[in-house]
Design goal:
- Helix content is 34%, strand content 20%.
- The chain contains 15 helices and 17 strands.
- The strands form three sheets. Strands 7-8-10-9-13-17-14-15 form an eight-stranded mixed sheet, sandwiched between helices. Strands 1-6-5-2-4-3 form a six-stranded mixed sheet, with helices on both faces. Strands 11-12-16 form a three-stranded mixed sheet.
- Helix 10 links the parallel strand 9 and strand 10.
- The radius of gyration is 24 Å and the shape is elongated.
- The two termini are 36 Å apart.
- Bound molecules: ligand BES, manganese (II) ion and zinc ion.
- The site of zinc ion has 5 residues, from strand 9.
């Protein structure tokens, strides 16, 4: 989806949208358009009881006196209540409503501003919403669908198009990063194998990100026994990819670690067949890290951030690891694998350790579709946040609120540790059924030392059974917006 910025009076034969505040009548541009139409727009708005309330929509087909085939009014609600996120929703709903019928949509925003969002920021937020809504995953269809989204271009018509475009620079980068993550999550596992995923991540080099891809021989020689144990049953070899963006900021990087299980059958502890196809999305953490690195590099963030992803496929096979096997992690600690379906934590254990060894990060955040239990706790509305570092937790919670990708803090504490005791090794890889997401977080905690660390369980948010205007596809790209805002708000300082 392309976004262009033009002068406000350059409307033409594209579908056109005016955004309206509640209790303010039609905005200036729409007043003129209404006069041209001989009162057609105002009459339609009155018949539709359109008052500019948030979520309201009114569309006029073939408006009198206009080249535009459709002119739509979209409600923004009360101007004092409008913020960046509600503006994104309004921009998204324009694409949701008109996307099947218009290749180009004009957003007429001249003269529009609100107390909390100036005119250019408002234009940028509407455009970002449109971009997020304008995503579709059609690569595997050979026939065009009737309901297909056809919008290819948004033209933002502003009084200050240059400034609005500048305000949209971050939005453009974020939108692109979210698309990268969604494409990865939606891709089927027969095509998106660990090596294919690594190739995709390596494309970040074109944005100035320093890439290092570790193959199985290298992983073996440095001792990533836990990660390799998971990969053993698969015909596709494991990879670990590091992606370092040094855009300035502090000496020590922020490390972002992602679980990249390209398919999770459960391994020998095989999952039941119902819904197993969703497990192609078990690399949503790695996708979020790649998408966030894309956004951060594309907008040239003044920050030092390194992304690390552990890529494996969890398959049952004659060579697969068994329940009862004991693996030696990169940290030297041994793990008894009780359940081969608790594989994400085994992958993360080694990548978390590697991140510290290699980069001495200021803080580490991992993202993983780690447990079904977090879906029972939080549904698809929030990701679970686990951290014993108050400062880091606060920063992530705040970034969740600004980005709209919200997280909810979960408990941690010594009492949850006892479930991880093993009869034979330093620990086992599962606790009991109770508090499954918490014991999983405690397992990870054993590989983070004293580095400030947070874990985001995104099993309920990386993909969603129901789409929304802002998240129109199965794979949401969850984490890209959150991590990008976290970097902007907390790591992009000169400190
Ligand atoms: N990838 C799954 C978690 C998951 C489940 C993500 C449903 C998204 C939707 C993970 O590897 C897993 O299988 N976890 C097990 C852990 C259990 C064996 C302790 C689970 O949640 O059942
Ligand atoms: Mn699993
Ligand atoms: Zn998994």
């Amino acid at each position: 989806m392309d976004v262009h910025f033009k002068k406000s009076d350059q409307t033409g034969d594209a579908a056109r949208v005016y955004f309206c505040f509640e209790e303010q009548g039609l905005p200036p541009g729409a007043v003129t358009a209404d006069e041209t139409s001989g009162g057609h727009l105002a009459k339609a708005a009155s018949i539709a009881k359109f008052e500019g309330k948030s979520g309201q929509y009114c569309e006029v087909l073939a408006p009198n006196g206009h080249e535009a085939p459709r002119i739509a009014l979209i409600g923004l609600g009360k101007d004092g209540e409008l913020d960046g996120l509600s503006a994104q929703k309004a921009g998204a709903s324009a694409v949701q409503k008109l996307g099947k019928n218009a290749e180009t949509i004009d957003f007429v925003v001249g003269g529009l501003s609100a107390p909390k969002v100036d005119g250019n920021a408002l234009a940028a937020a509407l455009a970002l919403g449109a971009v997020l809504a304008g995503y579709s995953f059609t690569r595997y269809r050979t026939k065009e669908q009737e309901s297909a989204l056809i919008t290819k271009e948004i033209r933002v018509l502003s009084d200050t198009p240059g400034d609005a475009e500048t305000a949209f620079a971050a939005g453009r980068a974020i939108g692109a990063g979210v698309y990268v993550a969604r494409d990865l999550v939606n891709a089927p596992a027969n095509d998106l194998t660990p090596p294919a995923f690594a190739d995709k991540a390596a494309e970040l080099a074109t944005l100035g990100v320093e890439i290092n891809v570790l193959d199985e021989a290298q992983l073996e020689s440095i001792g990533m026994g836990a990660l390799l144990g998971v990969a053993r049953g698969s015909a596709h070899p494991a990879r670990v990819v590091t992606m370092h963006w040094q855009g300035g900021g502090r000496d020590k990087p922020l490390a972002l670690v992602g679980k990249g299980v390209t398919f999770d059958t459960g391994g020998i502890s095989l999952k039941p067949p119902g819904g197993m196809e969703d497990m192609k999305g078990d690399m949503g953490g790695a996708a979020a890290v790649v998408g966030a690195m894309h956004a951060i590099a594309a907008r040239k963030a003044k920050a030092n951030v390194v992304g690390l992803i552990g890529l494996v496929e969890n398959m049952p096979d004659g060579t697969a690891q068994r329940p009862g096997d004991i693996v030696t992690t990169l940290s030297g600690q041994t793990v008894e694998v009780i359940n081969t379906d608790a594989e994400g934590r085994l992958v993360l254990a080694d990548v978390l350790w590697y991140a510290q060894q290699t980069y001495e990060p200021e803080a580490i955040i991992d993202l993983a579709t780690l447990t079904g239990a977090i879906i029972i706790s939080l549904g698809h509305e929030h990701a679970g946040l686990f951290s014993d570092d108050e400062g880091l937790a606060e920063k992530i919670l705040a970034a969740g609120l600004t980005s709209g990708e919200t997280v909810w803090r979960q408990p941690m504490g010594k009492a949850y540790e006892k479930g991880l005791k093993s009869k034979f090794a330093d620990m086992k890889n599962v606790g009991g059924r109770a508090a499954g997401s918490v014991t999983a977080a405690h397992f990870l905690r054993r590989f983070t030392n004293d580095v400030p660390w947070a874990h985001l369980d995104i099993a309920g948010t990386a993909w969603k059974p129901e789409t929304t205007a802002l998240d129109p596809s199965w794979g949401t790209g969850f984490g890209v917006r959150l991590l990008d805002r976290l970097v902007a708000q907390a790591y992009e300082t000169d400190g």
